[in-house]
Amino acid sequence: MRCPDHRSSASSEPDTADAAACAECARWLRASHRLDELAGQAPGPSESWTRGLMGRLDAALGEE
Ligand SMILES: [Zn+2]
To answer: Which pTM value belongs to this model?
Structure first.
Protein backbone atom coordinates (compact mmCIF):
# COMPACT_ATOMS: atom_id res chain seq x y z
CA MET A 1 0.00 0.00 0.00
CA ARG A 2 1.04 3.56 -0.56
CA CYS A 3 0.78 6.38 1.94
CA PRO A 4 -2.66 7.61 0.86
CA ASP A 5 -3.90 4.05 1.38
CA HIS A 6 -2.29 3.84 4.81
CA ARG A 7 -3.87 7.08 5.81
CA SER A 8 -7.35 6.41 4.50
CA SER A 9 -7.43 3.03 6.24
CA ALA A 10 -6.02 4.56 9.42
CA SER A 11 -8.68 7.25 9.32
CA SER A 12 -11.55 4.83 8.83
CA GLU A 13 -10.11 2.25 11.23
CA PRO A 14 -8.00 4.18 13.74
CA ASP A 15 -7.38 1.11 15.89
CA THR A 16 -5.49 -0.71 13.18
CA ALA A 17 -1.75 -0.15 13.07
CA ASP A 18 -1.24 -0.29 9.30
CA ALA A 19 0.00 3.27 9.13
CA ALA A 20 2.74 2.54 11.66
CA ALA A 21 4.42 0.39 9.01
CA CYS A 22 5.54 3.63 7.40
CA ALA A 23 7.39 6.26 9.44
CA GLU A 24 5.70 9.13 7.63
CA CYS A 25 2.27 7.65 8.20
CA ALA A 26 3.03 6.83 11.83
CA ARG A 27 3.87 10.48 12.36
CA TRP A 28 0.75 11.53 10.51
CA LEU A 29 -1.36 9.12 12.55
CA ARG A 30 -0.01 10.45 15.84
CA ALA A 31 -0.82 13.99 14.76
CA SER A 32 -4.25 12.84 13.65
CA HIS A 33 -5.00 11.21 17.00
CA ARG A 34 -3.75 14.28 18.85
CA LEU A 35 -6.04 16.51 16.84
CA ASP A 36 -8.95 14.17 17.48
CA GLU A 37 -8.29 14.42 21.20
CA LEU A 38 -8.08 18.18 21.10
CA ALA A 39 -11.19 18.44 18.97
CA GLY A 40 -13.03 16.17 21.38
CA GLN A 41 -12.04 18.22 24.41
CA ALA A 42 -12.48 21.71 23.07
CA PRO A 43 -15.94 23.08 22.39
CA GLY A 44 -14.60 25.39 19.69
CA PRO A 45 -13.54 23.85 16.38
CA SER A 46 -16.26 22.31 14.29
CA GLU A 47 -15.86 19.00 12.51
CA SER A 48 -15.50 20.75 9.18
CA TRP A 49 -12.80 23.02 10.59
CA THR A 50 -10.92 20.01 11.91
CA ARG A 51 -11.21 18.25 8.56
CA GLY A 52 -9.82 21.34 6.88
CA LEU A 53 -6.92 21.41 9.29
CA MET A 54 -6.32 17.71 8.73
CA GLY A 55 -6.19 18.33 5.00
CA ARG A 56 -3.63 21.08 5.45
CA LEU A 57 -1.60 18.95 7.83
CA ASP A 58 -1.65 16.08 5.38
CA ALA A 59 -0.47 18.38 2.60
CA ALA A 60 2.23 19.92 4.79
CA LEU A 61 3.61 16.54 5.85
CA GLY A 62 3.51 15.35 2.27
CA GLU A 63 5.74 18.23 1.20
CA GLU A 64 8.58 17.34 3.53
ZN1 LIG B 1 2.91 5.43 4.43
So the answer is: 0.45
| Residues 58/7, Cβ–Cβ less than 8 Å | yes
Cα of 44 vs centre of ligand 1, distance in Å, is 31
Question: pLDDT grade, residue 8 (50/70/90)?
Answer: confident
CA of 36 to the centre of ligand 1 (A): 20
Domain range annotation of the chain: 3-63
Burial of residue 18 (CB within 10 Å: 0-12, 13-18, 19+) is: middle
